[in-house]
Amino acid sequence: MKKYLLVLFVAFAGSSAFAQNNWKTPYLTKSLSGQSIKDVFVNTSGGSITVSGASDEQPRVEVFIQGNNGNSDLPKEEIQKRLDENYDLKVDVSGGELHASAKNKKNNMDWKRSLSISFRVYVPGNVATTLNTSGGSIHLDNLTGSQQFETSGGSLHLDKITGTIKGRTSGGSIHVSDSKESIDLQTSGGSIEARNCMGHIRLETSGGSLHLDGLKGDIKATTSGGSISGNKIDGDFITGTSGGSINLTDLSCSLDASTSAGSFHAQFVSVGKSVKIDVSSGHVDLQLPSKQGLNLDVRGDKIESNLTDNFSGNKDKERVEGKLNGGGSLVEVRGNGRVNLTVN
């Protein structure tokens, strides 16, 4: 049985109903106190979505409405008129599920009369979410559970999320921090920044750069058209770009890295099971730990190294092959340019 049904087309008499309309003040606030929310479903065609499990916030849903052309000064009466004409806008709780939606009634609605309708949802942290917006950003923080979300035109912002995380955006950037377990994020047109995350991590962009810092676990991060920077990576790391440089520091991991059109730099504190580097068009700078046992197979147009008595094997201007400190993990480099190999 539904515990309550809120239809936003009706004028509310309560003090929390229709607040003064601007982008900082909710058009409507509805308390969720006393509700046991386990799943959150939000769908809007033109606004942003925020779901927060912050413990210092009272459980509630806030609705923000403004003109789609950026006009935040529409009178309340005009907003109500446009809602009645063009939208189905509801907030509903039933069986532990929260549903908030804003849907167009018309397929050919006049864009001049369209609205941007955004939702901010504050709930207890242990919830699952399913979120979709065709024109805004998505923000999630302080949540534990399964989170699935998608936007066609906005960015993704995630902080302090634990669980299964799957997010997609067709045209925005991605920022994720202090999150863990299973992270799967993709964008077709923006950069990705990931900080202080751990677990099974998959990051992919078709047209932006990658900025990675403090990642640990099973990591795959790729881009089709940007540069890659990484610091403090631990675990098993696969990365690659078709159109940029790669710069990695403070590595304690296995590495499989490639670039088709840029330079490569990597500095290892310790090498994991193996290192494989493939650089089609650019120079390679590789720094390895001096006291670790390694098997080296390094090839390039011109190789410069500082290998001394702790190396046994063959080295010339185009190839270095042999053992460092008696051998160990394989380090394989394939470059078509200059290779600087430093052991320190």
From TrEMBL:
Keyword Signal appears in the UniProt entry: yes
Residue ranges occupied by any DUF4097 domain in the UniProt entry: 178-299
Domain of life: Bacteria
Matches recorded under Pfam families: DUF4097 (PF13349)
Keywords associated with the record: Signal
Signal peptide interval: 1-19
PANTHER family, per the entry: PROTEIN FAM185A, PTHR34094
Listed name of the protein: DUF4097 domain-containing protein
Species classification: Bacteria, Pseudomonadati, Bacteroidota, Sphingobacteriia, Sphingobacteriales
